[in-house]
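Fold this: DNA primase
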Amino acid sequence: MLSYGMIPQSVIDEVLQRHDIAETVGKYVHLTKNGKYLKGLCPFHSEKSPSFTVTPEKQIFHCYGCGKGGNVIKFVMEMEGESFPEAVKALAEDAGIPITWTTVNPEEPSAFQKEKKVLHEAHEYSSKLYHYLLLNTEAAKTAKEYLTGRGFNDALIEEFGLGYAPARWDTLTLALERKGYSPEEMEAGGLLSRRQETGGYVDRFRDRIMFPIHDASGNIIAFAGRLLSDGQPKYLNSPETPLFNKSKTLYRLHEARSAIRRARQVVLFEGYVDVIKAWSAGVHNGVATMGTALTGEHAALLKRFADEVILCYDGDNAGQAAAHKSIPLLEEAGFRVRVSVLPNRMDPDEYISAHGSEPFVREFIEGAVSAVKFQLIYLRKSHILLEEDGRIRYLRDAVRIVARRDSPTERELLLKELAQEFGVSLDTLKQESLEYRQQEKLGNAGDIPAGSWNNVWNEKRSAPKNPPLGAAHVNAERQLLSWMMQDKETALLVEQRLGDRFHVEDHAALAAYLYAFYARNNDPDVGRFVAVLQDDRLERTASSIALIDIPFGERELEDCIRTIGRASIAREVERLTEELNRAQRAGDFARATQMGIEIIALEKQRKQY
Ligand SMILES: [Zn+2]
């Protein structure tokens, strides 16, 4: 029933045996001992006091803050943004376990894969060459001076692997040829250009400062070159190649990934130099698009590591318009968005050069405004606020922007600010916002004046799918599952007595997985058990249940089974009573009598429990 694609169970077992969770987690998180647990700051959400725990005895981790939890494989998946097979493979390689299972491409690497491998190597080589030329040649003197003038010290040049492509036609062409690379392939890879007239090949990048661009695994896949002389284009990127897809690549994502994950926040820039300068100012979670607009693919990629995006675009009209356009795309992807409003005609690089690192971070990273605040500021540009007519139109548009926000508190605060600034009454603005929400069918939670109940809303809220936490039978289920994870006999007993009669859906699923786990002759092992779940929510629930630390007792076990059994009968009685009432109303007395008999039988059963 359970399989992991091509990976044999034996490999997964060995991976779990060979990697101690405390040691693996310890590579990313500083852990301190606290009784049976190790505690640390959660790497998956931002926090100031530790709620992240590792239990070596059970080989699981669990965060009380964000709820993430699971075994060592799950931890690596979350940490590295990898799939299950990827994480198993990485852990297996790390422990020297031979990778015997077949991957997606079982045969020889395809021609396409071979081509990509050659291009990776050629890019790596070209990058080293450009870097060497920048640091060691007379021809790069102007380039070096230019960089120094813009505040690039040696450490920055090293960290970002900057280079220089000389003002010649054949520097890279000859070097690649000497290394035995075919010029056709190098042209297809974007490193060389074809000369129209003669049919020969020449360097694509000439007299440019070179910025290597990496993919998510850290391979160099392209370059951006900034022209030193006055010509055009100022920035030249590699073309789209088998390696390089602009709408999926973000400058510096590979290196910034762990900082992004730690803060659950990413800062998006427009320019490569902005990323570098911000990095030197201490902003290590910055990335940039490839001189193109932000795409849904970019957003999805970032969502694996972050919950919040700060748009730090140029202060000019084009930059602000680009930020304005990116907000809906990012909000749709589930991000909280904030925007840095830089002074007009300044980009982040210029600001840092002129005013220094500390004011930049304080004003524009920490001080970035909420998306809606930015939209309101942006809206001012298209209205003439000196005229009454313009003010009215601005207010109307502004209220619409505010009305679209989900949070009633946020709406209230923003409307208050508008009312104060423009000297209008808050009630008027609220009324207008309410009308707009009704028109757009946005729902009116929180906007309804006290006393007038909206029945549709109330109905929607009643009848939650799962009973509230804290109910006796819910706690009993969690307690039972925790003992079942530790002891096979208990699981078998519960299977006989309760089977699938757990109330909470996830608990019923976990029980079913546990029955199956023991039926395959497994011994209790929380880490291994969690590996079979392959479901984020179930893994979280399982890991939190595994941490329940109440000693086992026969009497307590009986109490739990009884509580759950009774609750389950009570629910059945409730259902039958409803049916009985329906039958009576319909005049179907035979059926009503039948229901009555069944209810009495159940009530008897309930007492026996
Ligand atoms: Zn957490």
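The longest helix spans residues 554-585. Residues 580 and 593 are 8 Å apart (CA to CA).
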